[in-house]
Amino acid sequence: MLTPYPALRRQVLTIYKELLHLGKDYPTGYTHFRQNLHKAFIKNISLIDEDEIKASIKRAEFVKREIEALYYLKKYRTLKKRYNMT
What we know:
- The chain is mainly α and 86 residues long.
- Helices cover 74% and strands 0% of the residues.
- It has one domain.
- The protein is built from three helices and no strands.
- The radius of gyration is 16 Å and the shape is elongated.
- One of its GO terms (cellular component) is mitochondrion.
- Keywords: Ubiquinone.
- Belongs to the complex I LYR family.
């Protein structure tokens, strides 16, 4: 089936791949993260309205930024603990 918005499809695939890459270091494990990510994307597979697709992409980008912030915070706490910074 041909998608009506190929540019949006490209964005969705890109954000999916980026999230998969971020999931490699997720605290609960990669397989758990991948399964949940797959479920979330499958849930929105039937979207056909351009605005709804864009809103879903924005939500995925927000999740991506939150995961990155989680990793930076984890790294900061580890370094702080390791070097006994007060």
